[in-house]
Design a protein that fits this description.
The complex is a heterodimer of chains A (about 350) and B (about 500).
Chain A: E1 5-11, H1 24-36, E2 48-52, H2 67-87, E3 96-102, E4 105-107, E5 114-116, E6 128-130, H3 131-141, E7 146-152, E8 156-157, E9 179-184, H4 199-217, E10 228-229, H5 230-245, E11 255-258, E12 265-267, E13 274-280, E14 287-292, E15 298-304, E16 309-314, E17 316-322, E18 336-339, E19 344-347
Parallel strand pairs in A: 1-2, 1-3, 3-7, 4-8, 7-9, 13-19
Antiparallel strand pairs in A: 4-5, 5-6, 9-11, 10-12, 13-16, 14-15, 14-17, 17-18
Chain B: E1 7-12, E2 18-22, E3 28-33, E4 35-41, E5 44-52, E6 55-63, E7 68-71, H1 92-103, E8 114-121, E9 138-143, E10 158-160, E11 165-172, E12 175-183, E13 190-196, E14 200-209, E15 212-213, E16 219-224, H2 232-235, H3 238-252, H4 260-268, H5 274-282, E17 285-290, E18 301-306, H6 312-325, H7 330-343, H8 360-371, H9 382-386, E19 398-400, H10 401-421, H11 428-447, H12 451-457, H13 460-467, H14 471-479, H15 493-496
Parallel strand pairs in B: 1-7, 8-14
Antiparallel strand pairs in B: 1-4, 2-3, 2-5, 5-6, 8-11, 9-12, 10-11, 12-13, 13-19, 14-15, 14-16, 17-18
Helix pairs in contact in B: 3-5, 4-5, 5-6, 6-7, 7-8, 11-12, 11-14, 13-14
The chains are: A alpha/beta (about 350), B alpha+beta (about 500).
Chain lengths: ~350, ~500
């Protein structure tokens, strides 16, 4: 286990002052499960503060969690860390803080992701946790060497929503530079000209892709050790969430602020998952075809006899070509197709 | 890999789209706007992503060894709130409805000098789902410049649940109006400021979402009255609509994202659709942050500069034309102020504006210039009052309807008493003190230490970073003797928007 990894996980479904969600608590619980999993985040149980809203509530004033619950959980963890790293500064090198939020959110400015707490209302939008501001505090205080924030919420533009940093006095140290990653589910004020899906359907896509990626789908293709890092995760999340929401009423493009030169490693030794791919050929075509990977390397050959060709393939771009080239035979999309995060039927 | 084996591409779109290229391992290879050229890439399959505003599309391309892949006509099949042919969300029924509303006014008036058409529609690529969203339960109201409801407007609303649209149109007296959409399920509504110039028909298309009409994503177009109704190719075509979408997305975020060539096309179409000219003119400016903030300015100053100094003569011509096309339009007045700030040249003697500009960026510009001693609002007008009520609504000017109601009720009394006591003065420092006090109070509760001890440990820089107030404002507020005893000053909007923390334990 990663003894010096800590986490605060927050999921809020019931917002008596706004609109309720359905899957935010479940998403938070799933992420907490990954954190505690020895082959996942491997964070010790006692180091994970799981804050799930326990509604329903009648009035916004009764609704919890508020900022206070999150702040107290953070304070509890960073107090433990401060004592531990003061005792033995070498521990700091292996330290990390995870923050995960699932709920309603907004963007008071383009670089911010503010997650609304359960007592927020349309009139009291100041009851939020502004992730970028919290990240800045911890980057400066150097309580942890790595900070990872995932925020599965909307980023609707609310330019006049007040934001307040974490209510902690500064405690700046000089352990070393902090590495961070701030992931968010949607771009700033990504106005959809199509009506939105019910919020929960849209919201679930990010955490779903995040858990898929951390489970293995986001393995860095250039890594020989099966590494999943913030860069490979960022690339996977962008492509996968776009794919999951393509054609939906509210397409999403997630983002991540992270330094590609200093990636945060989430896991080593992950095997990229493979998916069932069914290749369907146009009826008149018979003959030999070759399956190529994204760099035109040959993977396999097949004799087409009117039946689909079943393959299992990892994420990537592929092409099927007649072999030898057959003038006049044109496959759909020039025979190219993509495998990403799930089984797929490809009509060539 | 030898040079003869290497590949490349030349990608171009006439639309203002962002192009991104990824390799087969999902790694980003390249990105740019409009055109991308690259050589010396390994042969293989690449993914090209096109994006503009909220719309995106993708295709896979093959880069064969030793070849340059060329596609000089990349097209984004995008979503549009206006029912335009060749867009992803085109619906023939909606276009027919819009044209009918545009030609056959539901509330005609013999004395009308302007016209308004409002179409609310389900903007979906999936026609099967358009009747899923319930249109009952919404009322559209229109208030005139005196803030009285326009008679018969609400009653004339036509609802077509089956095809997923509702709409209304009217002949009106030119000038300022407020569009208000009320819902039976929630009492919260907003008023959107419109200015309807004489001789023009204004067309407002609003997407219908699962939680009701989405005013923040609406589209405003104009066409000359009496020309025979809205015609998509004349007022707006697909490429212009995409430029408009990118422009309004950018303006909502306070910046211009449209390349100059597309701005030129927007400006060129202003004689047929002056709204394109207004939005194009706003897009000629880029915001920059001014460092000389003052204690009286609660936020960082934003200064708008022309994208290119060479644009000054063009903008002057655009302003002259817009003034001729729509005299007295508050957005044109706002653009004139942008121009004056950027060039130092006065285009006209400023006439006080009584009605807010339709675009929030223009309204904020007029307000910030008024704040520094150049009065641009007519005294006690709606424009003078509503500047502190603004609520986010995409790029548009809007505020909670309750503010309008209060203003209507209080306006008479305010006017009566104004001459006796003078206008109320803003107290930004006390507001800042209140914000600082509340933040310190929250730290005090979390860390269980007295607020005065905490305040003494915090630097101006720290407080500025964690409250969003400029350092100079923080510094000035801390000079006030009773900076932390400001709880009685809840009258300030910035402070009432934040609840003090409550005690609780985490689970």
């Amino acid at each position: 286990m990663n003894d010096f990894h800590f986490a605060v996980v927050v999921g809020i479904d019931f917002y008596p002052g706004i609109r309720n969600l359905n899957f935010a608590r479940g998403d938070a619980q799933s992420f907490a499960n990954w954190l505690r999993d020895p082959v996942g985040g491997a964070v010790p149980k006692d180091n994970v503060e799981l804050i799930l809203e326990q509604g329903p509530f009648e009035k916004p004033d009764d609704a919890k969690p508020t900022r206070d619950a999150v702040n107290r959980a953070l304070r509890k963890l960073h107090s433990v860390a401060r004592v531990s790293f003061k005792e033995d500064p070498t521990r700091w090198v292996n330290s990390r803080l995870y923050l995960y939020f699932s709920g309603h959110g907004l963007a008071p400015e383009p670089s911010e992701v503010a997650v609304l707490m359960a007592d927020a209302t349309d009139d009291i939008l100041g009851n939020n946790i502004p992730c970028a501001l919290y990240l800045k505090y911890y980057e400066k205080s150097q309580d942890f060497r790595e900070i990872v924030i995932f925020s599965d919420c909307c980023r609707t533009e609310k330019g006049d929503a007040p934001i307040f940093g974490p209510p902690f006095t500064p405690d700046d140290k000089n352990f070393g530079s902090v590495i961070s990653a701030l992931g968010f589910a949607a771009q700033y004020k990504n106005v959809a000209y199509e009506p939105a899906e019910p919020d929960d359907a849209a919201r679930g896509f990010y955490t779903r892709a995040l858990l898929e990626g951390l489970a293995g789908a986001a393995v860095d293709p250039s890594s020989a050790t099966g590494e999943i890092n913030s860069t490979s995760l960022q690339n996977y999340l962008r492509a996968r969430v776009q794919q999951l929401t393509q054609g939906k009423r509210n397409p999403q493009t997630p983002g991540m602020y992270a330094d590609p030169a200093a990636p945060i490693v989430f896991r080593q030794g992950a095997a990229p998952p493979k998916y069932n791919v069914q290749l369907l050929f146009p009826a008149p075509f018979h003959g030999r075809v070759v399956l190529l990977d994204g760099k035109f390397g040959q993977i396999d050959t097949h004799i087409v006899n009117g039946q689909p060709w079943q393959k299992t393939l990892p994420n990537g771009l592929y092409e099927v070509r007649p072999d030898p080239p057959a003038p006049g035979v044109v496959f759909a999309s020039q025979g190219t197709f993509r495998v990403l995060g799930g089984d797929v039927d490809v009509q060539l | 890999m030898s040079n003869s084996d290497s590949s490349g591409y030349h990608l171009h779109s006439n639309q203002p789209v962002e192009i991104r290229v990824y390799d087969s391992a999902l790694q980003p290879v390249d990105r740019g706007v409009g055109t991308l050229e690259r050589k010396n890439l390994p042969p293989g399959i690449y993914r090209v992503e096109l994006r503009a505003g909220a719309s995106s599309d993708e295709k896979l391309i093959r880069l064969e060894p030793g070849q340059i892949y060329e596609d000089l006509n990349l097209q984004l099949f995008f979503a549009s709130v206006v029912p335009l042919p060749s867009t992803r969300t085109f619906d023939q029924q909606h276009l027919a409805a819009l044209q009918d509303l545009s030609v056959r006014l539901r509330v005609p008036s013999a004395t009308a000098t302007t016209e308004l058409v409002v179409l609310i529609r389900v903007v979906s690529a999936q026609n099967a789902s358009r009747s899923d969203i319930d249109f009952s339960g919404y009322t559209i109201r229109l208030l005139n410049a005196k803030l009285n409801p326009v008679p018969e407007f609400s009653e004339a609303l036509e609802v077509n649940q089956h095809y997923g649209w509702c709409g209304v149109s009217a002949g009106l007296e030119a000038g300022g109006h407020l569009l208000r959409i009320e819902s039976t399920s929630t009492k919260k509504t907003i008023d959107q400021a419109l200015f309807l110039p004489a001789g023009w028909q204004t067309v407002v298309c609003i997407p219908m979402g699962p939680h009701g009409p989405m005013l923040e994503a609406c589209s405003l177009q104009m066409l000359p009255t009496g020309q025979g109704g809205f015609m998509p190719t004349l007022e707006l075509n697909m490429d212009l609509a995409l430029s408009l979408e990118v422009a309004t997305t950018g303006l909502a975020a306070g910046r211009s994202l449209v390349p100059r060539v597309q701005i030129g096309e927007l400006l060129a179409r202003k004689f047929w659709n002056p709204m394109l000219g207004i939005i194009g003119a706003y897009c000629m400016f880029d915001p920059t942050t001014s460092s000389n903030d003052t204690p009286n300015s609660p936020k960082t100053n934003m200064v708008f500069k022309l994208k290119s100094r060479d644009d000054a003569p063009l903008l002057k011509e655009v302003l002259d034309n817009l003034n001729t096309l729509m005299p007295g339009h508050p957005d044109v007045a706002a653009i004139a102020e942008f121009y004056r700030e950027a060039t130092g040249i006065e285009t006209r003697s400023p006439e006080p504006v009584a009605w807010p500009p339709t675009l929030c960026i223009g309204y904020k510009q007029l307000a910030s210039i008024s704040d520094v001693g150049r009065p641009l609002f007519e005294e006690n007008s709606l424009a003078a009052r509503a500047r502190t009520w603004l609520t986010p609504c995409g790029p548009w000017t809007a505020w909670p309807s309750g503010k309008t109601r209060n203003y209507t009720i209080l306006n008479y009394a305010w006017q009566k008493s104004f001459s006796l006591r003078g206008p109320k003065r803003a107290r930004p420092l006390s507001s800042a003190s209140n914000i600082i006090g509340r933040y310190v109070d929250e730290i005090s509760k979390t860390e269980e230490r007295p607020p005065e001890v905490i305040l003494s440990q915090l630097s101006d820089e720290f407080l500025s970073a964690n409250t969003g107030l400029p350092i100079s404002t923080v510094h000035a507020a801390r000079m006030e003797p009773a900076a932390l005893e400001a709880s009685e000053q809840l009258e300030f909007d910035a402070a009432v928007d934040f609840d003090p923390p409550k005690e609780e334990s985490s689970s």
